[in-house]
Specification:
four-stranded mixed beta sheet, 61% helix
């Protein structure tokens, strides 16, 4: 059973977008007509593909079929002031992961590993994270980036040079967009320990240790990571490693989220919108 968080009336994604994410989004949104074009083309296509795929090979989660799971998504959306609840599906893979596709009519897909391994409040954080991507307007641009890595795009004549320049820049923004989504996840569950506990589980903690999770340990690891990796060689290795990743390292994400939580901005949003 989910502890019902305070509904954040009038909440807008602008109030919790991270500076790194905003810098990239502002540049992307400044391109005339690009967002609408992506919603009407790439995102619409991906919506259709995944709708068919989930109808044929996934499990639809609705208020009738699996009300307990659906209610967690409904609670997250209501808390974040999101009126239109996305379609919700479940598919088999034993990882802690939840993703989404589309923009105008998006679909959230959870892997059954997330359902099995997370408590309801932790699911609230992870579903809030994905709703944050949708609310912040990330999906049209994320869908474009995913499309840029498909084999079909490589067949476009003379596209290699443009793709070589565009992909790394888009991927860099794609990673930092998770900082915003994590903030939405925290606003959805309204418990920093739940958020950190979820990240620890996602980092690979075996199930037999779940009862003894200490959320502060991932923050200590983040401090130690920063202290030990300040030299030039470590910086180069980090850049080479992270440049091919689609998400920031979880230890870094945890530190970023905790810093925002402690800054007072989180509490300011709660005090302003919760009633």
């Amino acid at each position: 059973m989910v502890n019902i968080p305070s509904i954040l009336h009038g909440l807008k994604a602008d109030s919790y977008i991270s500076p790194e994410d905003k810098a990239g989004l502002d540049k992307l949104n400044a391109i005339p007509g690009v967002k609408k074009f992506l919603i009407d083309t790439v995102s619409m296509f991906r919506e259709k593909v995944f709708s068919i795929e989930m109808q044929g090979d996934g499990l639809n989660i609705t208020s009738d079929s699996y009300p307990e799971l659906y209610n967690i998504l409904h609670t997250a959306a209501k808390t974040l002031n999101i009126e239109k609840i996305p379609d919700f599906s479940l598919r088999w893979s034993y990882e802690i992961s939840i993703g989404s596709e589309g923009a105008a009519n998006p679909r959230i897909t959870a892997l059954n590993g997330a359902i099995d391994l997370l408590e309801d409040e932790e699911l609230l954080f992870l579903l809030g994270h994905e709703l944050g991507h949708l609310a912040a307007g990330h999906k049209p641009f994320q869908n474009l980036l995913i499309t840029l890595y498909t084999p079909l795009v490589n067949q476009v004549p003379h596209a290699n040079i443009a793709l070589a320049l565009l992909r790394p820049l888009m991927l860099q923004w794609y990673r930092v967009s998770d900082y915003t989504a994590d903030r939405a996840g925290l606003l959805a569950c309204q418990n920093i320990d739940v958020a950190l506990r979820t990240m620890i589980k996602m980092s690979g903690l075996p199930k037999k240790y779940f009862k003894n999770i200490k959320p502060e340990t991932i923050l200590s690891q983040a401090i130690e990571f920063e202290r030990k990796n300040q030299d030039l060689a470590s910086g180069i290795i980090q850049n080479l490693t992270i440049n091919t990743a689609c998400a920031p390292w979880l230890v870094v994400r945890a530190a970023k989220l905790y810093s925002w939580y402690k800054s007072g901005d989180y509490l300011e949003i709660i005090n302003k919108h919760a009633r």
